[in-house]
Amino acid sequence: MYFVPGEHPPPHFHVYYAEYSATVDIHTCELIEGNLPKKQVKLVLAWAELHQEELMRDWNLVMQGEEPFKIQPLQ
After folding, report:
1. What is the number of other CB atoms lying within 10 angstroms of the CB of residue 22?
2. Closest to 48 in 3D by CA, of 12, 17, 75, 19
3. Residues 13-70: pLDDT tens digits?
């Protein structure tokens, strides 16, 4: 997660994979915009569910103009 001036609710993060991009809602762990291949959607949403609390903490930091913490990627 990174800070982009003018970021807006709902809490979300952006995913980039090859030529694809998507936005994932942190509260619902669902794609709210864009698209990814099916396999990557499953992986990203599973990762989001596992790290939902960390994602919300980072979202709150970003909204306060602070640097987010790194979150462990999928292994």
Report:
1. 19
2. 12
3. 999 999 999 999 999 999 999 999 999 999 999 999 999 999 999 999 988 888 899 9
Tokens 């990762």 correspond to 47
Report how far residue 34's alpha carbon sits from residue 60's, in angstroms, rounded to the nearest whole number.
23
Structure tokens at 46: 């599973």
Q: How distant is the alpha carbon of residue 46 from its chain centre? A: 12
**Separation in Å, CA 29 to CA 25, 26, 65:** 5, 5, 23
Burial class (CB in 10 A: 0-12, 13-18, 19+), 24: buried
Domain chopping of the chain, boundaries: 12-63
Q: Which two tokens stand for residue 49?
A: 């569910």
Per DSSP, 29 falls in state: T
